[in-house]
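The instructor's notes for this session suggest beginning with a concrete chain rather than abstract definitions. Hand out the sequence below and ask the class to guess, before any prediction is shown, which regions might be ordered.
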Amino acid sequence: MLILHLSDIHFRKQEVGTVQDPNFHLRHELVLDVVEQCDRLGPPDAIVISGDIAFAGDPDEFAFATNWLRDLCTACGCPTSAVFVVPGNHDVVRSSADHNLVQMVHDSIKRSGNPAAEIAKQLRDPEACNLLYRSLDNYNQFAGQFFCNLLPPERTRAKRDLKMNDGSTLRLWGLNTSFVSSSRDARGSLFVDTASMQIPRESGVINLVIAHHHLSWLAQAQARELEDHLNHVACLQMFGHVHTNRVDMNRDYVRLTASAANPDRHEQGWEPGYNLVELSIQTGATGRTLDVKAHVRVWQTGPDGFYAKRDRMGVDHFAHTLTLGNWHPPAAASVSHAQPPSTIESEAIPVEEGDAMDTLRELGLRFYRLSFSKKSEIAGRLELLEEDDMRLPDHERFRLIIIRAHERGQLDALRDAIYSAEQG
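After discussion, reveal the predicted structure:
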């Protein structure tokens, strides 16, 4: 399995799509390098973005990101449905997060002697819950096309399952470290909710946790608790935000921190980059192991280009082997080692077959690109909306339309309606 890990792309509304965009050349070269590496390693099975897709959480920034990601996926030979995203602080609309009422909720969490309990209390209050998440509305509209949108209090993390080469599961967990983010952010001032501490270990499942903020940006006590939890349950961890690439290899886990794809050119240590991570399970006389190869690609100038960061021995990747628990696939679920990995599940969607889940994501991507009026017309005509849906944000209503079409056997009708709307 190959995972492309990007972070901190920072699409700026006033720059992207203009001839004055200072990062056009950098992004163009990144795509060329990804294509070259994928020609050698194979197409990605997942494109993981650990936050800061936008720069100011603006809808136009997310629209540009959607088109750029579609072009990237086409170039490196994977479907756009392979994209998996989590929110970062730049995906937050600061004017919303800085509002007095929102800051009152933030302060009640930051000043609490028990932040986890206070967060849970605020999430149980519908008005406070809405205040905590409304600055991520634009992000959620964008993330909805990948079935990664969040709806508190029950869905405050994104989840997706991928099939590994031995038939076991790689489970992606996308955490939200940005719901208390605002212009007042400082190291040690951010939080996760209790759901982030409830990631289970399961036989035949490898947990990969993705979050935007490095642990050092969380409140100290919670950072320690989350780190201990992740080190116990997730042998693979990916972070962004700090704009510095790091590969930490421990007996029990591999932790990757990504360079920014588009760091601020004036920041100290400017070094754009991205990661490609190869995963493969081996089964032998001594048991099951997970082989990890992290290809860290960093930008240099004069000559321009992305090059491999090397380990101390001069090797162009960082290799590590993790010991896994014994697991044997059920007889009916046995797969060939030659079979490519595939997407098989997404949280809160009652689909187990890989092809069915892929179908939902492909339809979701097409549905997302339609205008609001066309989406509403299709939902009404196919009777896929219910009265209670009117209380939900747009991104969640449109997500439910896709899910209900699957549950009610209306996917073909929905597909025909989407295609017809695209032509019209």
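Then share the key points. The longest strand covers residues 287-300. The radius of gyration is 21 Å.
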